[in-house]
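Retro notes - structure team

What went well: the batch runner handled both jobs without manual restarts.
What didn't: labels got mixed up in the shared folder, which is why I'm recording both outputs here explicitly, each with its sequence directly above its tokens.

Job 1
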Amino acid sequence: MTLLTDDLHKIYSYARFDNTNRIAVVLNNDFVSHSVTVPVNKVSIINGSTVTDKIKWNRLHSFQRFCHAHG
């Protein structure tokens, strides 16, 4: 399921999920970092949930049904 597309900043985000697990993937195809807000409410991640950046192992927080990522 597509969560976010941003052609200007070369960002694409999608989600995969089943009955017990959810994952949101954000891809940056640019040469510079960008901050993005991903609408994780589309995959039923509730407000206040903590998610983990599995590449950098940073903890991110969902706020108002969106997940804010930087870098």
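Job 2
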Amino acid sequence: MKSNTKERFSLLIEHKDKLTELAKVLLDKEVIFKDNLQKIFGDRPFDKFKSEAIIAEKNVDEKESSAVEQEDTVK
């Protein structure tokens, strides 16, 4: 339990500048949007992987659909 607390605390220290900037923006605007967060923190690293997974899934679906169409044509 203590190690988790230390890890979380070190993450807060590591990103203190970004968190301070976020706090200032929130105090100024009260409401922020995705583009505000992207300016402060940058792009979310897992969004890239999620996008790649969606594209890969779409490609698989298209190949399967194409294979089914070819089978129907052969019959």
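One thing worth noting from job 2: The mean pLDDT is 78.
We'll revisit the folder naming next retro.
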